[in-house]
Design a protein that fits this description.
Chain lengths: 194, 194
DNA sequence: AGATTACTTTACACCATGTCAAGTTGACGG
DNA sequence: CCGTCAACTTGACATGGTGTAAAGTAATCT
């Protein structure tokens, strides 16, 4: 527990999240400070740099939205296929909420090693959800022939990437439910054999 | 035709391309200048800014690799399905060569309106290839039910995005042929009915 | 009263892009 | 042989965002 004011820290995280989610151009440290009603320098009393702040925002979001609970739901599905569908719905509905931060972190990936590591860590965690769904498919003997479990996981992971969501949802203008439905059907056809 | 030395211009483009394709961290204007053996300022005698330089690199690549010829090939396929496969192979094999520039342009998209417009233009052109393949499928009556032609195009477009290639090829370490093969099969299953 | 915490304000270093102005060099025409 | 022009070089500088440093202030705890 930090000795710094906890409410200020939360205000920063919330302000940063709000700004990032609005998606109105690049969000600078000074923008976040202004939104949180503190000086730009005070940000550095709470977070050593921009990357750390962004990472803290994602962790904060995980807490607020209780990611664990969402994932637990998909783990209870009765069959591999059902589990796949539940996983896609759970993750697919979470993307919109982390999208702003995700964008910012991805943009930093090139210059900032820490940002890259953080983002890769989160994506690795997401990949485990994909692996679990694929494993459930395989246990049912439903995994398509000609695709190894690892490859199937890679494929599902790519299909569920934030970039693909961005493209279909924002560039192509698909409604969220349509994105979920088509992605579920696409994944089923791509991964399930028979 | 510019009055500036044409060979210098080509040397710049080639140097920029080489550096970008190596993918060793961010490529600065000074890096490109050094590689082309001119001063950083001389770059600005040939290109008004970084975005324009990058765009020129893509156009240069199109010329060098004769993109039109590649596309013409896929247009001659006898059936919709064959055409889809040919298109995926053609574009999928082109991605590795434009990947470096693509990355750089995508990274600029957020701050630079010109870079964004340029990239979107190129992606719109690529999308036409997807639309043509989908139209060929539909003409054969092979388009999956429950998916409009526009949606099918969007889906194929996303599946063939540079980001997905990056993820499978670089993050997951797939060989290029495997990327092509699995993408072809995935697209077939996702788009073709029956 | 004194110390500590959580800030503020001001100033500055760094780095990449892009601008500006004053050279230098080599080729070509008269 | 001289002048001119095109293609470059060198050096200085503005801008914008990140991050560092230091001194000051106001409230709170003991």
């Amino acid at each position: 527990m930090s000795r710094k004011n906890e409410s200020t820290r939360n205000r920063i995280l919330k302000s940063a999240w709000t700004l990032l989610e609005k998606g109105e151009g690049p969000v600078r440290m000074s923008d976040i400070a202004k939104a949180a009603k503190i000086s730009r320098q005070a940000l550095y009393l709470h977070f050593p740099n921009r990357a750390d702040l962004l990472i803290a925002v994602t962790r904060h979001l995980d807490e607020v939205h209780d990611v664990e609970a969402r994932l637990a739901e998909s783990r209870m599905a009765p069959s591999g296929v059902k589990r796949l569908q539940a996983w896609i719905a759970a993750w697919g509905d979470y993307i919109p909420q982390i999208h702003g931060v995700a964008r910012a972190l991805m943009a930093m990936r090139d210059h900032d090693a820490e940002a890259r590591a953080a983002w890769e860590g989160r994506m690795a965690a997401m990949r485990e959800g994909c692996a679990a769904a694929v494993a459930a498919l395989e246990a049912d003997g439903d995994l398509r022939e000609g695709l190894s479990p690892v490859e199937a996981t890679d494929l599902l992971w790519s299909l569920l990437s934030v970039r693909v969501w961005e493209q279909l949802r924002l560039d192509c203008g698909w409604p969220q439910e349509r994105y979920i439905a088509v992605t579920q059907e696409t994944a089923r056809r791509a991964l399930v054999g028979g």
